[in-house]
Amino acid sequence: MAAGDENSHILSGLTNQLPDRDPEETAEWLESLDTLIQERGTERAQYIMRSLLQRAGAQSVGVPMVTTTDYVNTIPVDQEPEFPGDEEIERKYRAWLRWNAAVLVHRAQRPEIGVGGHISTYAGASTLYEVGFNHFFRGKDHAGGGDQIFFQGHASPGMYARAFLEGRLTEEDLDGFRQEKSKEGHALSSYPHPRLMPEFWEFPTVSMGIGPMNAIYQAQSNRYLHNRGIKDTSDQHVWAFLGDGEMDEPESRGLLQLAANDKLDNLTFVVNCNLQRLDGPVRGNGKIVQELEAFFRGAGWNVIKVLWGREWDDLLERDSDGSLVDIMNTTRDGDYQTYKAESGGFVREHFFGQTPQTKELAAHLSDDDVWNLKRGGHDYHKVYAAYQAAMDFKGKPTVILAHTVKGYGLGTHFEARNSTHQMKKLTLQDLKDFRTHLRLPISDEVLEADPYRPPYYHPGMDAPEIKYLMDRRRELGGSVPERRKEHTALTLPGEKTYEVANRGSGKQQAATTMAFVRLLKDLMRDKEIGQRIVPIIPDEARTFGIDAFFPTAKIYNPNGQNYLSVDRDLVLAYKESISGQIVHAGINEAGSVAAFTAAGTAYATHGEPLIPIYVFYSMFGFQRTGDSFWAAADQMTRGFIIGATAGRTTLTGEGLQHADGHSPILAATNPAVVTYDPAYGYEIGTIIKSGLERMYGPDSTDPNVMYYITVYNEPIVQPKAPENIDVEGIVKGIYLLKKSETEGPRTQLLASGVSVPWALEAAQILADEWGVAADVWSVTSWNELRRDAVAAEEESFLHPENEARVPYITAKMADAHGPVVAVTDYMKAVPDQVRQFLPNDFASLGADGFGFSDTRAAARRFFKIDSHSVVVRTLQMLAKRGEVDANAPAQAIAKYDLLNVNAGTTGNAGGEG
Length: 913
Hints:
Blueprint: H1 3-6, H2 23-40, H3 42-58, H4 87-108, H5 120-135, E1 148-150, H6 156-165, H7 171-174, H8 210-227, E2 238-243, H9 250-253, H10 256-261, E3 267-273, H11 288-298, E4 302-306, H12 313-317, H13 323-330, H14 333-339, H15 344-350, H16 356-361, H17 367-371, H18 380-392, E5 398-403, H19 428-438, H20 444-449, H21 464-475, H22 499-502, E6 509-510, H23 512-525, E7 533-538, H24 541-544, E8 555-556, E9 576-577, E10 583-586, H25 589-600, H26 602-605, E11 611-617, H27 622-634, E12 639-644, H28 663-668, E13 673-676, H29 681-696, E14 706-710, E15 716-717, H30 727-732, E16 734-738, E17 746-751, H31 756-770, E18 773-779, H32 782-798, H33 808-812, E19 820-823, E20 842-845, H34 856-863, H35 867-880, H36 888-896
Parallel strand pairs: 1-2, 2-3, 3-5, 4-5, 7-10, 7-11, 8-9, 11-12, 12-14, 13-14, 17-18, 17-19, 19-20
Antiparallel strand pairs: 6-15, 16-18
């Protein structure tokens, strides 16, 4: 292995693979640099070094990119700003916070409760948070509008402990930790869950990887609001607190380039590098800080390392030959973890004892002094310097890599142990030692009286420390976290906006995707809400017909369009703009959902509603980014999710991984998602109008929902809205589309989306060729019908004294006689959702199994969901009831050659795949 490869996890290997042909000259250059630093300081040295690197590049001198630096603090001691606070006071109440956070979890783990919690994360990160709370995090009453802070999920006890000191929470509230129903009214959610604590938490973060991704798009959304003139967000900052283990999630790193490309200097990541994940070291044989430094630097971020506390400053200054830095560089993370689980004597022997120089360097220190050499993430001065540098840095986002110890201060059973993440309670001796370490006025007798319920500590609101704490928050704009739901009122569009959806397509054919896009165009033209519509698309605008918006609405790009567009002379030219309205995320569904979440919660985050409309391949929605939609639900996102090219057989040429036959089922698992599968443009208009009224209408009682609407790329003649349009039926999920005038055995055909025309064709065939009267129902939402029916069952179950409410679908079809045949372009489980709520004989036709590439007609015949399959299935059910000839089904199978995929005729070849 080459030397450069061997040290790649430590340094960039600038000289490792090059011979030194004149060591004496090299020494002279290095001595010159040392003299420059001593006489002019590190800031001047930085400029000279940057100038030399720049000139070297211009002269074609091959100098590799410096991706990692020595394992020392990025900010030199002579560039550290003066700490502005009273460190002694802050340290004192930080001890109270750390005690209360640990006790909160410990008390929740007592035998009769046992609901768990996490003690060690906040114990190790408290300094990182407290420097922010005392000096940086701005609340919503700040003149600039306040910051957005993504707290690390497992550190939530620390946020509750601070809210307790601030008087926002009581002891009874703390004792409700993780007991949200049994302690209702005094309950605290396990992690940051806005939906569970809607006045406290703003951003859900514990589904790891989603927090960093959403923080990036939150910072982008802030700039979007500003650049489009909706709100001045220039003095607002986004902070994301993350774990070094969490950075292994692909989502944690996968969108870093967006932040760099957009120059989001309103964003700071703080990575709590305690070197441990949930089960053990993050990189036992390597160095996660160095790895992350290289990764972030390569992605275009400003990187600040906070590795060593001020106690190391003297040692590093006296490290004349670099022996100490070399040991810091070469010590692996697994060893760093072990050092903090041992003792000062162990560290002296195994760390400083590696060379005679470093052994002598630490000779004047006692074992206690060695043990108290802090890591940088526990030093107020070092952390403050890093935060201030991040705020001052312009042109790039900043990541702060802070070296900490997991379980810091909790004692030998907790500190740096592999099992510390799962440890939820302290022994009596742990409590006593922790109390002593924090210098709390709590006696042994009090702790011994009930070890399961050690007391919380609060000196009273008049204590000077609490007054100081409260004064700092007042100066910074109030308490955080805090969520507010008051927002600018919206005037919703009138009926005229929906005319394009209601008038149909005349003699022309138009897919429901196009019907939706035409409606979207008019929504964006609306004088009241048009500017608040945020179209969000991955890299498929032309597939969905949204490229028509490029020239007018333009694509949002904070850097504008600084190149000569290849299609500038075309009507539908690709146009980017600082004030563009369209968020074009590229081939990036995860980022699109993050953008959707940021826009869909602007009503609460900023008090300025945005209406995101995210359009995507239906197959790549809930299947690919379901966890992100769940986080969006937790954050109470409002907006429209458009699953385009829906259905298993409509996207004829694309095949298996593009063929959506199940997204409504996946969507049904999210309680905040309202799912619709409309067949016609007027249904889409009715649904979107209802959705806007639910999200932002004055009479809404449940506005925090996302509407998932599936649309198709198969052109049909879009009919005009019926004169007496059944608005209630469309919104609730089912209405009678066409009642048969035929005299004969009666059946009911239920269909949704693209399958409605098949049902209509089947009804005509049944009437003309078999004398069967088939009523056709458009089911706009199987999911909502089921939710309503299940809710009715629940009401009846819990309140038998009341007359049972009849489910909507049961009541709607009370007079609908004959068997039911339900057909969709999805798997049978979609229509089967309503089967139990109808007394009729019921059969489902669906596209179960994998999709494939073929013509629509062949695919539908293969899955037996085409018009003739509906006819045959209907005849079978009627024959079973004795209402048609027993031989009719077999005759129909033969007549339509039902087992031959090449005999299918349902659908057309129009629409691009």
